Amino acid sequence: MMWFWAVVALAVGVIVAVALSTLLGRSERAASGAYNPQALSVIGSALLSSFILVTAFLIAGTWSTYNTDRQHTYDEARSATTAYWLAGKLPAADRDLVRGQLTTYVNQVISKDWPLMGDHQTSDEAYATLDGLRADVAAIHPADAAAEKKRADVAAALDDIYSKRLIRAADVNYDMPTLLYVALVIAAILLVGYPPLVGLTANGRNVALLAGLGAMVGLGIFIVIALSHPYSEPLTIQPSAFRHALERFAQING
Question: Tens digit of pLDDT for each residue in 101-117?
Answer without folding.
Answer: 999 999 999 999 999 99
